[in-house]
Amino acid sequence: MGALDILDESTVAVQNVTVRYKTPADDDGARTSGRIARVARAALGQQPQVVVRALSGISFVARAGEQIGLVGQNGSGKSTLLRVIAGLEKPAKGQVLAESTPVLIGVNAALQPDLSGAQNVRLGCLAMGLTPDETAEAIPDVIELAQLGKAIHRPMKTYSSGMGSRLRFAIATAANPHILLIDEALATGDAAFKERSEKRMERLRENAGTVFLVSHAAQTIEETCTRALWLNHGRLVLDGSAEDVALRYRKYAWALAKGKPDRAKAIIDTALAEKKATSVLIEAPVKPLAHRPRHARASGTLLRETGDQ
Ligand SMILES: Nc1ncnc2c1ncn2[C@@H]1O[C@H](COP(=O)(O)OP(=O)(O)OP(=O)(O)O)[C@@H](O)[C@H]1O
Hints:
The protein is an alpha/beta fold. It has helices at residues 35-44, 78-86, 117-127, 132-146, 161-173, 191-207, 218-224, 242-257, 261-274, and strands at residues 4-5, 10-24, 49-63, 67-71, 93-98, 103-104, 179-183, 210-214, 227-232, 235-241, 279-285, 301-306.
């Protein structure tokens, strides 16, 4: 297949992204390093380290109107991919380009523990790129959604973790982002808040150009997404319709649950063999988009996606 110019509709391009974490491990965990290295480390009193490959060479292009589900086992790299798209994590290799600032629901706001909830709402909105006028307009709505009562005027450091999460969630929704990233694991709060937040999420999804949703439930992906990416040990196993990916992922999870690792591996191998190789070519930078200035970052770019590698 030849190259396809998709500038008009692309919202996020993920180009060959690799993320590694260097983390401390015990001696057994670090056994892969050489004997000399181990002896030297012991002599220097250093703790052994291992490198975790959280994402390996991930490439895809997301388009306006898509709701993209991310599925995969625990530790497969789903949250890391969301954080990289949100710009919260820098990949060791590769790059992410977005036509506007992606907002990760729940954790984006860098809040100040000594300031009150209300002061943090203002700060959070401005930090997400809202103008002072937009911020003033958004504040009552955010405070209403968070429903913290008089506690909204207390310093955030006095909040319970649930109260903090509610405020962060409410602030994140104020941006009405064109690229929305939702990590289901972040969903929090009591029943009443859940219902209010679900309604808000629905509205956000309707307005967003592209939604990314992390979920462990294949059914949620099937019901809410148009497309799905299956990650396994940091690799992209399959990129396809939500129905097809959810079906195969379900079969894989079932095989694992039934103690049939060979069957599970065969499902992954088949998916990998069928997957269309995608490479994202970035041809020439263009000016950031002018029509959504508060979201635009220096990322407007001519993209090409090819399927012939
Ligand atoms: N800050 C970190 N330091 C070291 N390793 C990390 C860090 N964050 C993630 N990892 C590792 O990277 C890999 C991918 O983690 P990630 O959280 O992206 O997986 P996930 O698919 O979202 O998992 P889950 O479904 O359990 O939320 C895992 O092996 C994890 O241990």
